[in-house]
Amino acid sequence: MKIRSIFFAAAICAAALVSCSGADDLSVVVPSSYTEEDLVWHDEFDGTSLNTSDWNYELHEPGWVNNELQRYVRSNQNVYVKDGCLVIQALKDGSNYTSGRVNTQGKRDFMYGRFEARLKVPSGKGFLPAFWMMPTNESLYGQWPKCGEIDIMEVLGSQTDTQYATLHFGEPHTMKQGVTKSSGGNFAQTFHVYACEWEPKEIRFYVDGRLFFVEHDWFTKSGSTTKPYPAPFNQKFYIILNLAVGGNWPGNPDASTKFEENARLVVDYVRVYQKK
Length: 276
Prior knowledge:
This protein is mainly β. It contains no helices and 21 strands.
């Protein structure tokens, strides 16, 4: 059963906030201004397969980025819809790993709004699930990081009590990151709602209705020319869901890493809200 977004009814619990680099003073309760009337697109994953009118499969070889071990493939063993959820499953076959990565590029692209997903993350050393966004036209300001990147949710499989939200931008590469702890247990035990509210001069990050990171200071260049603020976050972005295995940040799986149910990113829904 789908659970309606909790942010409409819940105020933010200031006691659970964690102050981070780039964050404002978040001691004041700041409920979201987006309502159900602002919903412009959603996928509840109620069908029997991924809707390719909205989503693309990405295919990449191991080591494509960050020295990751997985091969991203189009396979109903790695990406499938079941019981009203999208499942991205990492699989191990000897020393080889496969996983899934899907995006909405060219099909569902957005500039500004609230981007929300209800997710259950995997647990185990070497897993790195992500709910994030990249620009539709990466050449507008130049290749990464000048084009910008919005990471709404990343949780290391070996540190499932901690969530990261990150902005990448600029030349030289600059990163602004917010970090928050689970208010109880860890993010792999059950579903949690992760959200980003992206507006022209401010980007806010939430988990389960709690605001934990706000940023409004960024920049970028095209060649030697600094582009006017709020570039690069003033262009259309698309949504990405993926589960990486190994690599520079999470490290590689070891003898303690379990696959099967432990190696699944489960997505109950993805929703986008925009003001009229």
